[in-house]
Amino acid sequence: MSTKQQYIDGLWVDAISAKTREIINPFNQEVIAEAAEGDASDAQKAIMAARNAFDQGSWPQTPATERGRIVGKIADLIERDSEELAELESHDTGKTVEESRGDMEDIAGVFRYYAEIADKDGGEVIDSPVSDSVSRVVKEPVGVCGQITPWNYPLLQASWKLAPALVAGNTLVIKPSEITPLTHVKVFELIEEAGVPAGVANLVLGAGDTAGAELSRNTDVDLISFTGGIKTGKKIMQAASVNVKKLALELGGKNPNVIFADAAFDTAVDQALNAVYFHAGQICSAGTRLIVEESIHDDFVQALVDRVKNIKLGNGFDDTTQMGPLISQEHLDKVTNYVETGVQEGATVAVGGQKPDDPALQDGFFYLPTVLTNCTTDMDVVQQEGFGPVITVETFKTEDEAIKLANDSIYGLAGGVWTSDIAKAERCVARMRMGTVWINEVNFYFPHAPWGGFKQSGIGRELGKAGLDEYQETKHIYHNLNPEPDHWF
Ligand SMILES: NC(=O)c1ccc[n+]([C@@H]2O[C@H](COP(=O)([O-])OP(=O)(O)OC[C@H]3O[C@@H](n4cnc5c(N)ncnc54)[C@H](O)[C@@H]3O)[C@@H](O)[C@H]2O)c1
Ligand SMILES: C[N+](C)(C)CC=O
């Protein structure tokens, strides 16, 4: 088995320490690859390459049209190799290959979107308050960007960072989660093939507290963009203060899905399942807090439970599988404890609440899709991000109460409202404190619309024009066409 290497300064390299890590398929714990285990010294080497490429290389000055062309070529290559990428992602994360195929389409779309807008903002001329002067605003790259991604949507989250950073003329070092590096390695082969100059885009592999921590504290890094958990986000924010790095944080969520009695019942039930059980609930924007109008609670829960019982768990490469495993034994233990805590707090397991007993699933990190009823907003299970296939159900009687419950969270990533009353829907979303709100929809995102969190779900935005702004500095240039002495002194 050849070792998956890092890509630093245009070369494929092992870790300086020569250490490696086994990469595991969470469906059966089979070792599917061996990857270089970089650490702080590898990160320093990559940062130096990115620093040199920014300070002395041609990329920041390359016309935006040309940078866009190269990023467009990456999109073409991702489309060409999308099946290979999708299979790698599913082996690495356990998600169904159908879900991974959807991710690859989205990823190519993100590179394509930023390629297309690369040269669309040529700056702005300001109406100067002084005659014989020109005042203009231009956008410039920030510099060297550190980028850190999580294991749940490895390449998708990377694409939201790589594409805008590159078209804006930055250089970068990205570090994937140490447990899911495979699609990052493959996409760097495509980045090389597309003609991105050596040193501009660098890939470091390895653990968060070594390689990742170096990216956040190193003073040669000008911007750090992180997607992951809130605890890590806080550490990165602290480390980044050393040189006041620009900071973008995409953190967790505990997202409400509010169902009014006048919602289209069958669709709302169906989408409440989609909101949570895709990728076994390991989605930052999963609608895990179901908030249902009291008058339909019993029917709604019964309909959910009937459907949940039939969800087919299994190998993501089997066409009939609807839900794969969790990512690791550690995460399975965390989800198990999370549900047990909920039960101790007074929640009732309406369905699931344990590992499956199917002998075919015993080698994987499976947990049954679960619905917990009798939940109240003060419970840990309602407030903490469980990041597993678990829905908690709360009830409300009035619109005000529904909004109060929806907003009762330290998080503010996303939320949904289901109703057939247009005015009520608009009133609700206006009051919901989240970066994305859906009316009669769940979990929908696309390259043109910004993504990010209110409150402790994060800082900054990815995707859309806002996602490009994160990677640009704004410079005002004032030109006095008729300089004269003032004779003040
Ligand atoms: N807001 C979003 O768009 C979004 C998207 C995907 C995932 N997430 C969140 O990500 C979390 C799950 O991902 P995870 O378990 O991989 O998160 P995590 O915070 O454990 O790890 C994320 C990344 O940070 C690195 N890391 C860990 N410690 C570090 C440190 N001290 N310094 C620098 N880097 C460090 C890890 O190696 C990994 O690459 C969930 O909370 C989920 O909600 C958010
Ligand atoms: C941002 N999203 C929904 C793609 C993945 C969150 O975990």
TrEMBL record:
- Tell me yes or no: is Aminoacyl-tRNA synthetase among this UniProt entry's keywords: no
Q: Which domain of life is it from?
A: Bacteria
User: Which InterPro entries does the record cross-reference, listed alphabetically?
Assistant: Ald_DH/histidinol_DH, Ald_DH_C, Ald_DH_CS_CYS, Ald_DH_CS_GLU, Ald_DH_N, Aldehyde_DH_dom, BADH
Which stretches make up the Aldehyde dehydrogenase domain?
Answer: 12-477
Under Enzyme Commission nomenclature, its number is: 1.2.1.8
Q: Which Pfam families match?
A: Aldedh
Q: What class of enzyme is it?
A: oxidoreductase
* Residues annotated as the enzyme's active site: E250
Gene Ontology MF: a single term: betaine-aldehyde dehydrogenase (NAD+) activity
Instruction: Indicate yes or no for the key word Disulfide bond.
Output: no
What metabolic or biological pathway is this protein involved in?
Answer: Amine and polyamine biosynthesis; betaine biosynthesis via choline pathway; betaine from betaine aldehyde: step 1/1
SUPFAM superfamilies on file: ALDH-like (SSF53720)
Mind listing the UniProt keywords for this protein, alphabetically? NAD, Oxidoreductase
NCBIfam families assigned: BADH
Family indicated by similarity: Belongs to the aldehyde dehydrogenase family.
Q: What is this protein called?
A: Betaine-aldehyde dehydrogenase
